[in-house]
Design a protein that fits this description.
Shape: globular
CATH architecture of the largest domain: Alpha Horseshoe
Radius of gyration: 31 Å
Oligomer: single chain
Helix content: over 70%
CATH class of the largest domain: Mainly Alpha
Structural class: mainly alpha
Largest sheet: none
Number of domains: 4
Strand content: under 5%
Number of strands: 0
């Protein structure tokens, strides 16, 4: 492109990007010089303000907080709309530079502008730390009290209470610190900080209730100290309850000492008849016997609870555990009998429908399909509208089909489809009836989505059910939405690389308009344009949810495409081609893993678009010899995540001879587990899914199957054919 054709704004943006790249690569002098030049030479441009922000961040990170503060002040002066965040950044720089009074002023000003409880408590924490730095003891404790007035999550409340106790100790107020440690132990005994508070109390020689002490130690995994505490309770009074024996038994179990655990549970059963923990002790005893390899005795222990105390709240659980133990031992007919016993004795228990379903599966695996059908028919008789009814109908149809009874199979599978055609069982039933392959690769290129006619179709559809006379009235965002300061502020923060803060504002905006379909539709478009894909998908799905439409066939195609998009197409389709995947499988996986959010991090610390965990990422990088100088943070790069995730999925697929169900299960739940379930299922796809032992992994396989079907409908199936025929 000739230089003369580049606008000043484009040239500035390129320079800004280059400066930020230099900083990211550790080339501080080059990056800071370039950015400082933009800020100094063109002070009234948005790029200059962005340069100030980048310089502030870099200087703060490199230990120059005073200079960083000047740049944050420049941001605040040039872009007052960013004040809720710029004041906090300024406060952080001032705090790091030891200018605590000014930092406090900035934090308090930011707090006055905070619009969500999350922002408020975050700022109150910084205010508390700043007061502590200023030696303002009472004010620091008052800040922690303000947080506790807002916060509702027990784990967070326990952490804040612990910080307040530590602050009291820092200022030499031992009595107040101990009082607060006691409160944490008493009020939040199941939280992590209860154990830390307990340690402080014990080290200070403070008296603590021994039973409570033992239970906190147990939950923290400190099994030795837990047992010692429980024994002190037992030795202190001959009239003690069964509780310390029970928890001592659990502690021994978790510590890998089943023989000692067994002794504790048996002592409880023998010496504390009628105790509140007597029934649970039978389950504990059974678990210990299982660990000792004494399965028949364990079965007897499990059965002893419902026989002795049929109304005990854990009686059905004991029967379920007995049935599962038999199932694991491949004593399948006995397992089926145990599951049926549970359902018959406790028909109102939440597990009763699944018990009848599992009875049928056990009989099917035992080679008794007729008996299996009997169990599933009983399930349908007892629970015709329960969540396991569709599963039972599917398996009736599958087994009838295997027996050659096409009429009965068609009837059962048709009922399955009718119950929920786009759910996992409905889709599998349709596969069996039509002979369709599970993941049927499109024969043609994926059809583009979102032309002017398709977008107009959404407006026409929405006008119909919203009662709006002219669809043109829906063509522009509601004025109230456009005027909301969170919109422009959030988009600016995103453009400037402040992803977390930008997303916070825009998500708060989306939630504020949760019941406004028109606003949600326009937010879906705005978020898509800004690259905030997860929020765009959720907003579009909200429009669908607010509408009278049922399944994907009842919404306009473009809205469906917003809910099931093809983002990162250049990466996804390149990797699909290289590794031999239907690209729609990868899109379905991406949607399930991260909703296309490149910076997503899961509770299991999986990173990026395809949610690769760091240890696996390191193994893949070594296997591929790419990228150069690999670091864990590279998993947040879409290019790396797409390659790593697809490579790893291909490894699982090839391990299972092209079968995607076990490949997907291996991707989520581990290849060793998937191999074990696949072997147990005898390579039966449907049985494999039922035998997946991890609830999350089973749901993962089912959801990706459902996502794939919708993707196929939108981009390669009947929907595209219908659109092309118009």
């Amino acid at each position: 492109m000739p230089r003369s054709s580049i606008s000043q704004a484009e040239a500035l943006s390129a320079m800004l990007g280059l400066g930020k790249t230099f900083l990211a690569e550790g080339r501080f002098n080059e990056g800071s010089a370039l950015l400082a030049g933009i800020a100094a030479d063109l002070p009234d441009t948005p790029q200059a303000t962005n340069a100030h922000l980048a310089l502030g961040d870099a200087l703060l990170e490199t230990g120059e907080p005073d200079q960083a503060a000047e740049h944050y002040r420049a941001v605040l002066d040039a872009q007052p709309s960013l004040a809720p965040y710029a004041l906090e950044w300024l406060g952080d720089a001032l705090f790091a530079g030891g200018v605590y009074t000014s930092a406090l002023t900035s934090y308090q000003a930011a707090l006055d502008l905070a619009e969500t409880s999350g922002r408020q408590v975050s700022l109150w924490e910084k205010i508390a730390l700043t007061h502590a730095a200023l030696q303002s003891y009472d004010e620091a404790l008052a800040a922690y009290a303000a947080i506790l007035d807002i916060a509702r999550i027990p784990a967070y409340r326990a952490r804040i209470a612990y910080q307040a106790a530590e602050t009291a100790r820092l200022f030499g107020d031992e009595a107040e610190a101990m009082r607060r440690y006691h409160e944490i132990v008493d009020d939040y005994p199941t939280e992590t900080y209860a154990y830390q508070a307990l340690v402080q109390l014990v080290e200070a020689g403070e008296p603590v209730d021994e039973l409570l002490r033992g239970e906190i130690d147990y939950r923290a995994g400190a099994y030795g100290p837990a047992v010692e505490a429980f024994y002190r309770v037992i030795q202190a009074a001959a009239a003690h309850t069964g509780e310390p024996h029970y928890y001592a038994g659990l502690s021994y179990l978790e510590a890998g000492s089943p023989q000692l655990a067994l002794a504790e549970f048996e002592t409880l059963l023998e010496t504390h008849p009628g105790d509140a923990y007597w029934g649970s002790a039978w389950i504990g005893k059974a678990r210990a016997l299982v660990d000792l390899g004494r399965n028949d005795e364990a079965l007897a222990a499990y059965r002893a609870l419902p026989d002795a105390l049929p109304d005990h709240p854990r009686a059905a659980e004991a029967l379920w555990s007995a049935a599962e133990l038999l199932e694991q031992a491949e004593r399948l007919e006995e397992a089926a009998t145990a599951f049926v016993e549970l359902a018959e004795r406790y028909p109102d228990d939440s597990g009763a429908p699944d018990a009848r379903f599992r009875a049928g599966l056990a009989l099917y695996r035992a080679g008794q399909p007729e008996a299996a059908r009997g169990a599933w028919e009983e399930l349908l008789r007892w629970y015709p509208h329960g969540d396991r009814a569709q599963a039972a109908s599917f398996w009736l149809g599958k087994t009838y089909l295997q027996a050659g009874n096409v009429v009965s199979a068609t009837a059962a599978l048709s009922r399955t489809v009718a119950a929920d055609p786009w759910g996992y069982y409905g889709l599998r039933a349709a596969d069996l009836m039509t002979g369709r392959d599970l993941f049927c690769t499109p024969e043609e290129f994926l059809q583009p989505c979102g032309d002017e006619a398709e977008q107009q179709a959404v407006l026409d559809w929405m006008a119909g059910w919203l009662g709006v006379e002219s669809p043109a009235d829906l063509a522009i965002p509601p004025a109230e939405l456009l005027a909301d300061p969170r919109l422009e502020r959030g988009l600016t923060l995103l453009r400037w690389g402040r992803f977390d803060e930008g997303r916070t504002d825009l998500e708060a905006l989306r939630e504020a308009y949760a019941h406004d379909a028109a606003a949600q539709y326009h937010l879906a478009l705005i978020f898509r344009e800004a690259g905030l894909y997860r929020s765009s998908i959720i907003a579009a799905a909200t429009v669908w949810k607010l509408s009278p439409a049922g399944d994907i066939t009842e919404v306009p195609r473009f809205l469906g495409c917003l809910v099931y998009p093809l983002y990162f197409a250049d990466l996804v389709e390149k990797e699909a081609l290289e590794f031999g995947f239907d690209p729609l499988v990868l899109y379905a996986l991406l949607r399930q893993e991260s909703l296309f959010e490149g910076f997503a991090t899961s509770h299991a610390a999986a990173h990026g678009l395809m949610q690769v965990i760091p240890a696996t990422g390191a193994e893949i990088a070594a296997a591929l010899g790419w990228p150069p100088d690999y670091e864990t943070r590279d998993l947040y790069r879409p290019l790396v995540s797409a390659r790593f995730g697809t490579w790893y999925l291909a490894q699982q697929r090839d391990r299972f001879a092209g079968e995607l169900f076990p490949a997907l299960a291996g991707y989520n739940g581990g290849p060793g587990n998937a191999a074990r379930w696949w072997e147990a299922a005898g390579e039966d796809r449907d049985l494999f899914v039922e035998l997946i032992a991890f609830r999350e992994t089973r749901a993962y396989v089912e959801r990706i199957t459902e996502h794939y079907a919708r993707y196929h409908w939108l981009y390669a199936g009947e929907m595209t054919n219908e659109e092309n025929d118009k």
